[in-house]
Write a structure and sequence with these properties.
Elements lengths: L1 H103 L5 H52 L4
Helix pairs in contact: 1-2
Length: 165
């Protein structure tokens, strides 16, 4: 009986060891599965975060392009307007000069001719100074207006991207 008891005891010990080994393997498999699922969830969240960031960058870049286009439109329209104003001013100056030349052809004295030329010169200088000041102011205003969309985008970029991630 002693041999049978030893065999039974060995079988019981082996069965217990097999059960413990199987439990250890199951526990390891379960832990590995849990770790894999956790890693998979983290990778998925990371990919989603990268995709959201990429979408935001695309939208932001699109906004930059729209601001640049708007700025260019403002600039082109403003330069066209300034050019028209300068052309109108030049035309008015030319018309005044032609009028003075016509008047010079009808003068009766040298004093009258000198007075007409002096008035033309004085008026031309005064108008040129006034017009150049007005055009300079309009140019500064145009530059501010044209840069406004780009300035707004820079401000938005600083607000958006200066935040900690």
């Amino acid at each position: 009986m002693n041999a049978k008891a030893n065999v039974d005891q060995t079988v019981n010990v082996a069965a217990d060891a097999a059960q413990q080994g199987a439990a250890t393997v199951r526990s390891g498999v379960n832990q590995t599965r849990a770790n894999f699922e956790n890693a998979q969830a983290q990778v998925k969240e990371g990919v989603n975060r990268v995709m959201r960031t990429a979408e935001e960058l695309v939208k932001f870049s699109q906004g930059n392009i729209e601001a640049y286009v708007r700025s260019s439109q403002i600039w082109a329209a403003g330069v066209q307007d300034l050019t028209k104003q300068a052309a109108n001013s030049a035309q008015a100056s030319f018309d005044e000069t032609m009028s003075t030349l016509k008047q010079l052809s009808t003068v009766r004295s040298m004093k009258e001719a000198v007075d007409l030329q002096a008035n033309l010169a004085r008026n031309s200088v005064e108008k040129a100074v006034a017009e150049s000041g007005r055009l300079a102011d309009a140019s500064v205003k145009l530059a501010e207006q044209a840069l406004a969309p780009i300035t707004a985008r820079v401000r938005l970029a600083v607000e958006k991207f200066a935040k900690p991630v």
